User: What shape does this take?
Amino acid sequence: MIGKIKHHLFDDQKKLIVFVAMSGFIIFNIIFFFIPLGYGIIGSFSNWNPLQGTMDFIGIENYISILSSSLFKISLKNTLVFSSSLIILRTGLGLVIAAGLYAMKKNDGILRSLYFLPVIMPIVAVSMVWEWVYHPRVGLLNMILAAFGIVGKNWLMDKTLAMPAVIFMTAWKDVGYAVVIFMAALMNIPKSLYEAASIDGANGYKSFRHITVPMLKPTIIFIVITSLISYFQSFVQIFVMTEGGPGTATYVISYMIYNEAFENYRFGYASALSVILFIIILLITAIQLKVLSRGDES
Assistant: This one.
């Protein structure tokens, strides 16, 4: 009898702990996610300036203004170029480097750590270091080029070079993440598949194409989707290195949101931009998943 009572008390304690933990999680999300999200959506339909305490409803005027804005079209184009380039670089280089490290089988743990080191570095610090690397007079890159008799460039102030320069820096920082993820996935591929392919006369390229890539497809999908969400929201490196310039060469949507909110104090307009950015990410992600799922079916 006493044992049954203790058992019931123990069950009640577990239920209470679970209830308290879940309540805290739900309250946290309501306060720090759903309420700000609701304010943002409501604010997008308003002429909103929290500094003045005003929020005047104007309907879809902000959205109409954004969709007819030439600056938004430029920022959207730059965001697509920035994100698509980095998704290709991060996924492609990550897969190639991971496959190379996996084939080496020696010191791969040390090399993986070296590749992953930039990933854990603060993006602000990395951006500031690379801003110095790209400096036209005292930058490391131009010093190296000068040693080979090549005239350096003003990398971050050239309209044709600024975006590739920021993309290269971001790829250097982020590729290690893909390398580690791909390495973990490669280790889960049964070696018997490669042994069978070798017996059938398949070389390394054919094994990579017909075994490695298909087996890594879920991992590739994961990296592509997470990269898409991340890069469409990239802001810090743009803010630190170029401030959207020169001109509008690196002016992406996330920087436009910041500029409208904290430079022009058009918080309603910035909120509408944020909603549009969310919808774009959602639609592209859904399309990618649909296309990739059709590929699996075929």
Summary: The chain has a mean pLDDT of 87. The radius of gyration is 25 Å. The domain at 62-297 is CATH 1.10.3720.10 (MetI-like fold). Residues 30 and 36 are 9 Å apart (CA to CA).
